[in-house]
Design a protein that fits this description.
The protein is mostly helical. Helices cover 66% and strands 2% of the residues. It has a domain of 109 residues. It has a two-stranded antiparallel ribbon with strand order 1-2.
Length: 243
Amino acid sequence: MPLHEIFVGLGVLVASVVFVHEARRRGALNEQSLVTVTGALVGGAIGMRLAGWLETLNLSDLWLYGSRSILGGLTGAYIGVLIAKRIIGYKQRTGDLFAPAVALGMAVGRIGCHLTEAPGRPTELPWGVHAPPTTPECPGCLTGQAMHPSFIYEIIFQLAVFAALLWARRRLTEPGELFTLYLAAYAVFRFLVEFTRANETVWLDLTRPQWFLIPGLLLLALRLRYGWRRGHYDPLFKRKVMT
């Protein structure tokens, strides 16, 4: 089995363990919540493949390249959970159960990306890394250029966010807000880290993931404003609501 897929599988396993632990802690571990995990796994797998295929529009590439699209996987997992909950009639919010699990699972999965994919764009920073010349789709690897360790940036980010979510989960009482904060943080980070990644730019010097993220960032900004004005995040800052 390729090294990349091994770490993706380990990431899924870690995320599943964290989800079960968090669901048990919140008293939400039941058949319905486990069905949502199945929906996330199936939807995530389909989303990763479809997103990769849309970049090539070649049906023969559907299985080969789809596994590399994390944004497609997250979108597919979200839709998969919604469909699973609709099928079984489960109305409880589950996003807060998924947030820490996804963060830690992503950190593990990105190790495989770092070991097998083009690290990032060329850099003169002292922590630039060199990848083997056999790395696919990496011209800089052939010339021995130092490149941004973009996947290391994400591993550090995901671990830091995982720790922050563990701290915030006991303070936020409004359902869904922990998940909203994670999505917003990751969307902003991913948009910025794209400037260091080796992805092809398509328009205005922005990559496909960045164009995919722009409408999501706008919607998340509105969602955060909604939660802030209603005091949902007050416990994080010990801010008193004006009356």
